[in-house]
Design goal:
The chain is an alpha+beta fold. 42% of the residues lie in helices and 15% in strands. The chain has a five-stranded mixed β-sheet with strand order 11-10-9-12-13. Strand 7, helix 16 and strand 8 (331-334) form a beta-alpha-beta unit. It binds iron/sulfur cluster (2 copies). Residues 157-159, 194-200, 278-281 line the site of one iron/sulfur cluster.
């Protein structure tokens, strides 16, 4: 059959259809789309042009996900406060689960409605699923937090959550891509809803939230995401590495095994989120804090702080020291968080995130790395005054020089290759005091 005789093609060429289909999308009325999003179930919405300079780092990937995208629509879905505030994880996780489902359903409804008049729209998942074939790199296509801030829907607080002016941290975020422009775009908030009350610092069991604004991502991730992502890898490796049933039970308690079952069978669960629960930011929650600070603190801070619970930490990490010194009644369980770089770029990019600044106390040194083999490159890592900086070439004078075959180095980090063997065979060469090498390694416990 000739293409033009095909029934679908004939249908398309009937009066008006081809012209309509080929029409460039018009500018969409911002108020019209806002109303549509709110009616579909969002609690707030904002609009950002894809060309905004602050999103330059995301643009290429966004266009890869949806060629022709012109606008990002940031969607807010509020969480009920009390179910998140409770120390009962099952109730908090139920609320997260419902909110994520509601958000994904609403975003899908909006996309369906836009598709009718011929607007291409794409909703990114709220929460999971992620692009797991990118592990251990960046798993998501859209940085919801960055888009939400640009859309004027909140600012990042000390707890590293986006705080909405009304809902505070009690929300989940979604993002949609559109191939149309809007008649008006949103602007970032000109103030932060964070009132710097420091409750998130006081409640965090692993000390991830610091008073100077620093956030220890790895320590939070190791504990809060124990049953997701890298924590799951560690669980599987415990099964694989056990000599038998008794050995497995020594490594993983029965409580942890049934908890993992629940995580797999119901939905991904988190173990903490206390920094969200305790946060009074936002118009809806601040009244309780301002009218009775002592009562608020007693109700929301004391319970989680006093709780006997297991806190997951990497051996030798700042988090382990924090649990032991601040919460001696809690049990610090030493685990692997399953994070290990699989490329040199991943290693260098992950250094500032994995850095345990408490472990670096007293260390002031510059390290020159030279990688050979599959991923040749040079880099400098400077650790000084409990800060870290990574340069993508050799900068200044090195206190220690390390030259390594890239595959061997990654294998060593993953505990698959022996350092002594690598040094004897010349795959890894170190020039400088070995105690500096040990001090460097101490900053990155695994
Ligand atoms: S708990 Fe207090 S300091 Fe922490 S983010 Fe919320 S308002 Fe800011
Ligand atoms: S989720 Fe828990 S571990 Fe992570 S920063 Fe918040 S309070 Fe700390």
């Amino acid at each position: 059959m000739k293409l033009e005789e095909h029934p679908t093609v004939k249908w398309f060429h009937t009066a008006g259809r081809s012209a309509k289909a080929l029409q460039e999308p018009q500018k969409l009325d911002t108020e019209w789309l806002r109303e549509l999003c709110l009616k579909a179930g969002a609690d707030d919405v904002g609009f950002v042009e894809i060309d905004r300079p602050s999103l330059a780092m995301d643009k290429q990937e966004l266009l890869e996900a949806m060629p022709g995208a012109r606008t990002l629509v940031s969607l807010v879905f509020r969480l009920n406060r009390e179910p998140i505030r409770t120390v009962a994880h099952s109730m908090a996780n139920l609320e997260f689960g419902h909110a994520n489902k509601h958000a994904n359903d609403a975003a899908r409804r909006i996309v369906t409605q836009l598709q009718g008049p011929g607007i291409r729209a794409l909703n990114a998942p709220v929460g999971f699923p992620y692009e797991m074939d990118r592990w251990p790199g960046k798993l998501w296509w859209v940085c919801d937090k960055r888009v939400a801030e640009e859309a004027g829907l909140g600012r990042t607080g000390w707890n590293r959550l986006v705080l909405h002016p009304r809902f505070g941290p009690f929300m989940v975020l979604g993002t949609m891509l559109l191939n149309a422009e809007m008649t008006a775009y949103s602007k970032p908030l000109d103030y932060t809803p964070c009132i710097e009350c420091k409750l998130c610092i006081a409640v965090c069991p692993v000390g991830a939230v610091k008073p100077d604004g620093y956030f220890d991502f790895v320590s939070c991730y190791t504990h809060n995401y124990r049953e997701r992502l890298g924590g799951f890898i560690d669980w599987v490796e415990n099964i694989a590495g056990s000599k038998g049933v008794v050995d497995y039970r020594k490594r993983v308690s029965e409580r942890e095994t049934v908890s993992m079952w629940q995580n797999l069978s119901i939905a991904p669960q988190t173990r903490c989120d206390r920094c969200m629960a305790v946060c009074p930011a936002g118009e809806e929650g601040i009244g309780e804090f301002l009218t009775d600070r002592a009562g608020y603190t007693q109700r929301l801070l004391k319970g989680p702080r006093d709780r006997n619970e297991t806190v997951y930490v990497v051996p030798g990490s700042d988090a382990e020291e924090h649990v032991t010194s601040h919460f001696p009644h809690k049990t610090a369980k030493r685990v692997s968080n399953g994070l290990r770089p699989r490329s040199i770029q991943g290693f260098l990019g992950g250094i500032p995130i994995a850095f345990q600044r408490g472990r670096s106390e007293g260390l002031h040194a510059s390290f020159h790395f030279t990688f050979t083999g599959e991923e040749p490159c040079e880099a400098t890592v400077v650790i000084r005054d409990q800060t870290i900086k990574v340069h993508s070439d050799h900068v200044g004078t090195a206190d220690l020089r390390l030259t390594a075959d890239s595959r061997t180095w990654l294998g060593f980090l993953a505990k698959e290759k022996n350092l002594l063997w690598a040094i004897i065979t010349g795959k890894i060469r170190v020039k400088g005091p070995l105690k500096l090498m040990a001090a460097f390694a101490k900053c990155f416990p695994s």
